[in-house]
């Protein structure tokens, strides 16, 4: 076609092309901007220069309240930099423990020295899950709390390379919980909601650094069944099933406490020339952590995991930072409308928002 004819055809096409107007369909709304992670910058203390990432995401035991509290404690009292990540609503950016597939910010694990896990039945996109798996493969220490024995449940993408982490995996029997921590979900050993738990020190391991200063552990959650620990695992506390829901309730007579189930234990697995350290506790709901000695055991666990046990004093500082009024455990009882930034510490004059006060305070 001669050039003048091509130009005429192009002009005709332009003239007949519809022009966008106010009546044209609106573009799809942009996704909510990614909220900044909740970070407590470490102050003074033995943990200064170490980074701990705390992963909150369970539907029942209010990990979204427990872990910000623990992060503040570790940062302010002990100097650790703490990043707390949550299951978030994709649209609003609000904390939503029922959202099992969206925990933004997991790249923080790439720079973590240690992590605290409190997940239940999560199933993350492979790109996000890779950060967690890379963390494990790097041999870094982990404190796993309560439902973390069944942290993963793959029902949507069973072809995922990480589906074997599922609590009910047959390929990797018992999944992450059994293979890495020591056990997966087995049962409620006590009666859920009517029988509470007393932590009882295992006499043969009473001198373990994690138990330094730990004597009075009680919580309103029930004991979990744990049956697959290895002889090389070290039980620190056992769970006495109590006949009521108060600290002075008596142990139930008979089978539930004969023997008592493991409640807090450690595991070390070979990693290069050393070992990787894990601590698992089946007590640790937000309400359980009203127990100062349980908080102390968790603080000590971070030190031990990082091979800092020589710096654990006779009584680690486990005082709360700010107010802590944990919600009762239960499905659907989480507080609506809360964003990660709502847990930030008040900024001090001249400090960045969310920064932790000096640990001596």
Please specify the SSE layout and strand pairing:
Blueprint: H1 3-16, E1 38-40, E2 51-57, H2 63-78, E3 81-86, E4 114-119, H3 126-137, E5 142-145, H4 175-181, E6 197-201, E7 217-219, E8 234-241, E9 261-271, E10 274-281, H5 292-305
Describe the structure.
The chain has one domain (33-342): 3-Layer(aba) Sandwich (Rossmann fold). The chain is 17% helix and 17% strand. The chain contains 5 helices and 10 strands, in the order αββαββαβαβββββα. The chain has helices at residues 3-16, 63-78, 126-137, 175-181, 292-305; strands spanning 38-40, 51-57, 81-86, 114-119, 142-145, 197-201, 217-219, 234-241, 261-271, 274-281. It has a 10-stranded mixed sheet with strand order 1-3-2-4-5-10-9-8-6-7, with helices on one face. β2 (51-57), α2 (63-78) and β3 (81-86) form a beta-alpha-beta unit. The chain is globular.
Largest sheet: 10 strands, mixed
- In angstroms, what is the radius of gyration? 25 Å
Q: What's the β-strand tally?
A: 10
Name of the CATH superfamily: Class I glutamine amidotransferase (GATase) domain
How many helices? The count is 5
The overall average pLDDT, rounded, is 89
Amount of helix: 10-25%
In which order are the strands of the major sheet placed? 1-3-2-4-5-10-9-8-6-7
Q: Structural class of the helices, strands and pairings?
A: alpha/beta
Q: What is the C-level CATH assignment?
A: Alpha Beta
